[in-house]
TrEMBL record:
Belongs to the monovalent cation:proton antiporter 2 (CPA2) transporter (TC 2.A.37) family. CHX (TC 2.A.37.4) subfamily. One of its GO terms (biological process) is potassium ion transport. The chain crosses the membrane at residues 6-27, 39-63, 69-93, 105-124, 136-157, 177-208, 253-278, 285-305, 317-340. Residues 7-341 form the Cation/H+ exchanger transmembrane domain. InterPro entries: Cation/H_exchanger_TM, CHX17_2nd, CHX17_C, CPA2_transporter, Na+/solute_symporter_sf. This is Cation/H(+) antiporter like. It comes from Actinidia chinensis var. chinensis (Chinese soft-hair kiwi). Pfam families: CHX17_2nd, CHX17_C, Na_H_Exchanger. Residues 540-701 form the Cation/H(+) antiporter C-terminal domain.
Length: 710
């Protein structure tokens, strides 16, 4: 009776674990990098399968196993080739490389090897029933249709729950339990048909809607439950079934040693061969091989189900394989930690400026808001950056909430009174609900999942939370909103001084580009992306005076130009003395000439001309982007030119500064009010400057020696 109870507990644990694994999987990234991930996983799996077939006769005899030897080949292939993606995800998160290219590729490859091992498991477990092939095929089709039906049902159920009770931050426990009940019932039905439900649970989780209140509730609840209760209990049950007293001979120790060596050897040789084919550096390939050798889930399920279904009746085989997996974990874990620390520079946060990024490359951005006022503008900007071609973008929205000094306490959680107990969910009040509603509406309309983060911190060190999170997610740019906001009469009203202080500190300490948004109601494309016509067109101007910040603004702008409802114009300001000279854009340059120009000339003017020339040849000559040159003598003429175009554009993009002493802005800094916006940005954001468009001021990260030390 107790055995049945533990088997039922193990089954429910497998269902929840695989559903969470599917929920956590980054399927869009896997699809974009399917070729390298599949090559790496296929190479490792093929070598491990060959090794498993070679050693099966020896292990079959050494463990006195009974049953079809082909089943043991499949089981050993699954054990050797499996890479425990749930365990690898936790290792990557704890060692802080989960968001690196190496970490994400390793997790994707481990996911594919898991699926390969699961397929072998399903094939090997088919022998537990004696159905003819026609009946087996019929029930297989029925199980597939059931999985599809559950996926569709979950989509409608999640959307309905997201629209229900809009004033709630999260789902109620009963609602979350209802969703899990649908998954469990479907998995149990598949098990009763004679199939293993692992793949079905993973598919249901991977196709579950990630956005909205439902995904925001299920992920943290399941993460906490699985990693702190379900997974440890499941592993304990697996170990409880093993009998280590059976390991009392040299042949048993030989089996353990051989499986360990062939598992590591198969993964290392296969992965290194794939890395050589994919031109991945060898030092990274060795680390990748050890990451792929992490064990601890599907392999345990394989030997457990094999024992339960009596396809392999040897208790010694089960015990030896459990010991092998434990020893493998004890060896691989410290080796990975050592290699990750050794490759700290390779895995470290190295920012690549937008100036040098192609618009087709995935953009990771961290947008910060203090209240719901600016959320609509920020999500509109995110939609515009995504482009009409659905370019890869990973947006994070961080809700910054001030922690009042009086709420700080040195008491431990269990020492506080009931009225003192409060966690981060209780901060933010109705602002959290409004932000969630705006983000959920955006996700439902565009299909872009915005990862939401909430930080409760005093203004004194709030910038540290922003910079640390940007470094953790490998953000290319941090988007902040200005401390002033627009009133109903159109004037700018000063907000909290702590917001301005936070912006200034982020500009100083961030290790990536930083943009400050002066919001005057730019709607972006979040509410017009599904329509066509001139009424949805947004006119955006990028002001180019020269310098690294303006070049970064140009790199940011090229992503906006990919959207069909964005009409982008580059406005370059030049001194009037250069009107009859060759200081403008040389459209005759080819891309090779531009790169040669960049390497031969080091002055900022030549760098500006080279970057603009490449941009002109790529976007302007095709008619995708407009280009205008303005010739001015001094700051007064520049201000006058800006005033003339005040009502022509809904968004102005400009670099903060870095231009040195420029005659184009001479005298403009005399009335500078907010130095964090730069000379031009401060003028455009000024209350006295009558302009209707929003302003985005961008600062490019300057590499320093401190970056290498961190």
């Amino acid at each position: 009776m107790a055995g049945d109870y533990y088997e039922a507990l193990a089954l429910f644990s497998r269902i929840i674990i695989m559903f969470l694994l599917g929920l956590e999987s980054d399927i869009p990234y896997l699809l974009r990098h399917l070729r390298p991930a599949s090559v790496l996983s296929a190479a490792a799996c093929l070598v491990c399968t060959a090794f498993a077939a070679a050693i099966t006769p020896f292990i079959y005899q050494a463990t006195a196993s009974d049953g079809p030897i082909l089943v043991m080949v499949l089981m050993l292939s699954a054990i050797l080739s499996n890479s425990a993606s749930p365990v690898l995800i936790r290792i990557a998160v704890e060692l802080r490389f989960a968001t690196t290219d190496l970490g994400r590729l390793a997790i994707s490859s481990a996911l594919l090897t898991d699926m390969y091992a699961v397929v072998l498991l399903v094939i090997s477990s088919r022998t537990k029933n004696s159905w003819p092939f026609t009946a087996w095929f019929f029930y297989g089709i029925l199980a597939l249709l059931m999985v599809i039906a559950v996926i569709i049902l979950n989509m409608y159920l999640a959307n309905w729950l997201n629209r229900r009770n809009r004033n709630q931050k999260h789902l109620k426990n009963a609602e979350a339990f209802g969703i899990l009940s649908v998954v469990v019932v479907a998995a149990m039905a598949i098990e009763m048909m004679g199939f293993n439900s692992i793949i079905a649970c993973f598919l249901i989780g991977s196709m579950f809607p990630k956005g909205g209140k439902t995904g925001r509730t299920l992920l943290p609840k399941l993460n906490y439950s699985v990693h702190n209760f379900i997974f440890p209990v499941y592993l304990g049950y697996m170990g409880f079934q093993a009998d280590v007293t059976n390991v009392n001979s040299l042949s048993s120790l030989g089996v353990i040693a051989i499986v360990l060596l062939l598992s590591a050897g198969g993964k290392i040789s296969g992965t290194l061969a794939a890395c050589y084919y994919l031109k991945i550096p060898m030092n990274v390939g060795v680390l990748f091989a050890f990451l792929m050798n992490v064990k601890g889930y599907v392999d345990l399920v394989t030997i457990s189900i094999g024992l339960q279904n009596k396809v392999v009746t040897s208790q010694l085989f089960y015990s030896l394989m459990i010991i092998t997996l434990v020893v493998n974990t004890l060896i691989v874990g410290p080796v990975i930690a050592f290699m990750v620390r050794r490759e700290r520079y390779t895995l470290g946060y190295r920012h690549a400026a937008l100036e040098w990024q192609e618009p087709e490359i995935e953009l990771t951005m961290l947008a910060c808001v203090h209240n719901p006022r600016h959320v609509s503008t920020i999500v509109g900007l995110i939609a515009a950056l995504r482009g009409s071609d659905r370019g890869p973008i990973v947006p994070y929205l961080m809700h910054l909430i001030e922690l009042p000094e009086k709420n700080k306490s040195n008491l431990m959680y269990h020492q506080r009174e009931d009225d003192e107990l409060s966690d981060d969910d209780n901060y933010g009040g109705s602002d959290v609900v409004e932000i969630n509603e705006a983000v959920d509406a955006f996700a439902a309309e565009t299909g872009v999942v915005v990862h939401q983060v909430k930080v409760v911190s005093p203004f004194l060190n709030m910038h540290s939370d922003v910079c640390d999170r940007a470094e953790e997610i490998r953000a290319s740019i941090i988007l902040l909103h200005f401390h002033k906001h627009r009133r109903i009469d159109g004037k700018m009203e000063t907000g909290r001084e702590g917001i301005r202080t936070t912006n200034q500190k982020v500009l100083r300490h961030a290790r990536c580009s930083v943009a400050i948004l002066v919001d005057r109601g730019f709607t972006g494309t979040s509410h017009t992306s599904g329509t066509s016509g001139s009424e949805s067109l947004q006119h955006v101007a990028t002001l180019f005076f020269g310098g690294p910040d303006d070049r970064e603004a140009l790199g940011f702008s090229q992503r906006l130009s990919m959207h069909h409802h964005i009409n982008l114009t580059i406005i370059r300001f030049l001194p009037a003395s250069a009107k009859n000279s060759n200081a403008g854009v040389n459209v005759a340059h080819r891309e090779e000439d531009v790169l040669m120009s960049m390497s031969e000339h080091e002055t900022e003017n030549e760098a500006d001309t080279a970057v603009l020339t490449e941009f002109y040849n790529r976007y302007v000559t095709s008619g995708q982007v407009g280009y205008v040159e303005k010739y001015v003598e001094n700051g007064a003429e520049t201000a006058s030119a800006l005033m003339d175009m005040a009502d022509m554009y809904s968004l102005f993009i400009v670099g903060k500064g870095g231009r040195g002493h420029s005659p184009l802005t001479t005298g403009m800094s005399d009335w500078e009010e907010c130095p964090e916006l730069g000379t031009v940005g401060d003028l455009l954001a000024s209350t006295d400057f009558d302009i209707s468009g929003s302003v985005l001021v961008i600062q490019q990260h300057r590499h320093s020696s401190n970056d290498d030390e961190r």
